[in-house]
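Morning. Coffee machine broken again, so started the prediction first thing and wrote up yesterday's gels while waiting. Chain of 83 residues, entered below exactly as on the submission form.
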Amino acid sequence: MDAVEESCALCLSPASDAEFDAVLGCLEDIIMDDEFQILQRNFMDKYYQEFEDTEESKLTYTPIFNEYISLVEKCIEEQLLDK
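Came back before lunch.
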């Protein structure tokens, strides 16, 4: 174990591990939920034709990405607040 790993290991207590695991468990439940899957599927159905299989990243992708991030963040935040 090197010095960085050792100092990181000292920072993590069993309580913080349990809290981290609980948060990850909640996030996993949210993204595996049918409601979230439908949200993603509907978004994909709305925009999939905008994308091309090329190396170039179009400027039109940016607003689509921003909309997706906003949609996902809102959904996750609402679900976490309900728990």
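The radius of gyration is 18 Å. Going to sketch it on the whiteboard this afternoon.
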